[in-house]
Amino acid sequence: MTFQPDESDVVILDGGLATHLEALGCDLRDELWSARLLLENPDVIRQAHLDYFAAGADVATTASYQASFPAFVRRGRVPAEARALIQLSVELAIEARDEAGGGMIAASVGPYGAYLANGAEYTGDYDLDEDALVEWHRPRWEALAESGADLLACETVPSHAEARAIARLLEETPNVNAWVSFSCPDGDHVGDGTPLSDCAALFAGNPQVVAVGVNCTAPSDVKSLMGHISGSPIVVYPNSGEAWDAENRRWTGIADPVEFGAAAREWRAAGATFIGGCCRTTPEHIRRIKAELA
């Protein structure tokens, strides 16, 4: 697995894969979330990747965020089948990349909290310590490392312990490249309250790490969070700016792609090298980023 970004330019990521899959008519109300479609409708995942490439994305992030060996085993699949499904997420992105005529594949490594499906990916409130997190992540990590992806996207990391676990897995696989991005509830900390600067420092200067940054956080906090990252290129792909109203079960706030694109220009000026969107961002958000950064 090799990856050499062009340091002279910005790399445009895709947007919310699950968001676009829902727009394509998929029901993702399931603990597997978008990974459910690896079982039921893989063709629509390929189409979603194609739509993001058409919008201007340079990178397809795979549908493996919420995929894991335990989750698929719980659905009645044996470990060999679980491994094949996890690697299928990369195969679909590669097929879309080839049809689109080029691009990179980032194999999504979602946090342990995504498997719990209880919101812990935003708090880091886990029942596993660092050693146990290494063991939990390792099977999927190894499957994705051997999948043909250009790099691993270790994303929505909410805790210092999980960041340390990822650093250890990188040491175990010296031929693997990755970016590491954290979920942050404010402009200074990751989900468990650790300063982002402490988490980012774990990866500073690591030649395997192509970028460190934030995702699944508010756009308004991005510039502040970027100020806490040093020694690495920076990746940012926040949410749309909307907030989830749990009582009324709806999204509130503004998700204007034009405003998002303008903000991306500011993030680039502040030093971000990899820029995209996360939850509730769409191909139109990526199209606006492309237009603003062209």
From TrEMBL:
Metal-binding among keywords: yes
Annotated ranges, domain Hcy-binding: 1-293
EC number(s) reported in the record: 2.1.1.10
Cofactor requirement: Zn(2+)
InterPro entries per UniProt: BHMT-like, HCY_dom, HCY_dom_sf, Hcy_S-methyltransferase
Pfam families recorded: S-methyl_trans
Keywords: Metal-binding, Methyltransferase, Transferase, Zinc
Positions with a binding annotation for Zn(2+): C216, C278, C279
The keyword Transport appears for this protein: no
Single Gene Ontology MF annotation: methyltransferase activity
GO biological process, one term: methylation
Name of this chain's protein: Homocysteine S-methyltransferase
Provenance organism: Sphaerisporangium dianthi
Gene: mmuM
